[in-house]
Design goal:
alpha+beta; translation elongation factor activity; globular; single chain; 5-stranded antiparallel sheet; elongation factor
């Protein structure tokens, strides 16, 4: 991912009002983020802990989504829908994202289970356990990175879809 400016991040939010964009708090350490190691920028708002933001790059454009954590618990340990890691070292929570455009103004939302602090980029970059002798761990890691990017892209697409 390329380094982004504060204004690029605010402008990228496709489902946030001007007021919500203005109220956004950037992640701690924003100036020193390891942009090369990120597939997306995700963080929780320090002022509003139930609010999270995800910003990604796709085909030369920057797309961002504002999410709200939903209260409640699942009966079993959930799996993140983005990194699909079964050996998660972190919690997974349920997020709602208001849809973009008229659908969002009408109250329509899209929901997903995601790592609580958006640790997906780090999760997919850790080497998976060796499933069988001769398995290429680096190829497995690259497949997980590609799957993460595709899963986030699909989620953003669902937020922007008008139907």
């Amino acid at each position: 991912m390329h380094a982004l400016t504060e204004q690029q991040i605010r402008d990228s939010l496709i489902n946030a009002s001007r007021r919500e964009r203005t109220a956004l708090t950037l992640p701690a350490g924003f100036d020193t983020l390891p942009w090369d190691a990120l597939d997306f920028l995700g963080w929780r708002d320090a002022k509003f802990p139930q609010v999270g933001y995800v910003v990604r790059e796709s085909k030369g454009t920057t797309e961002g989504v504002m999410l709200r954590q939903v209260d409640g618990r699942t009966r079993s340990r959930p799996q993140c829908a983005w990194c699909e890691d079964v050996l998660l070292p972190n919690d997974v929570v349920y997020f709602n994202a208001k849809r973009a455009g008229k659908a969002g103004r009408n109250g329509n939302t899209v929901s997903t289970l995601v790592c609580a602090s958006f640790e997906c980029s780090a999760n997919v970059r850790s080497l998976p356990p060796l499933p069988y002798p001769g398995f290429d761990l680096e190829t497995g890691r690259q497949r997980r990175i590609a799957a993460l990017q595709e899963n986030i892209g699909n989620f953003v697409q669902r937020v922007t879809d008008e139907d």
